[in-house]
Write a structure and sequence with these properties.
Low-confidence stretches: 111-116
Radius of gyration: 18 Å
Number of helices: 5
Distance between the termini: 19 Å
Shape: flat
Number of strands: 4
Mean pLDDT: 77
Largest sheet: 4 strands, antiparallel
């Protein structure tokens, strides 16, 4: 595929599977009451996560939360805006903080739609 050695592709898939299995193994067996509630906004249970993207193409997500979680609660408890500010202060340009906002709130309905 695209001239990539199959050995490297297998290593990438193996690393991703290991990461997924570690995540699954860290989850509790049962969801709490708050995690199991239905989101009135989406009309079903969903995941909420802050998605980030930088101009260079680096992207990712903060931890995904399940259940009926408000944007305010997620933003306050996940503290991603404070983390972004800490990064800005450590990544100054000519000793100047360059402010930016590159995090967007995103709700994912159903696990298949959240798959990357």
């Amino acid at each position: 595929v695209y001239g990539i050695n199959h050995r490297y592709i297998k290593q990438i898939f193996g690393a991703k599977l290991s990461l997924e299995m570690a995540a699954v193994d860290s989850w509790p067996m049962f969801a709490s009451w708050d995690e199991d509630k239905i989101s009135q906004y989406y009309g079903e249970n969903c995941f909420k996560g802050a998605v980030f993207v930088q101009l260079c193409g680096w992207l990712g997500s903060q931890d995904l939360w399940g259940g009926a979680v408000s944007d305010s609660l997620y933003t306050d408890d996940e503290e991603f805006l404070a983390k972004q500010q800490q990064f800005q202060e450590a990544d100054m340009v000519d000793e100047e903080v360059i402010p930016f906002t590159n995090l967007m709130d995103k709700g994912f309905r159903g696990a298949k739609k959240a798959a990357w």
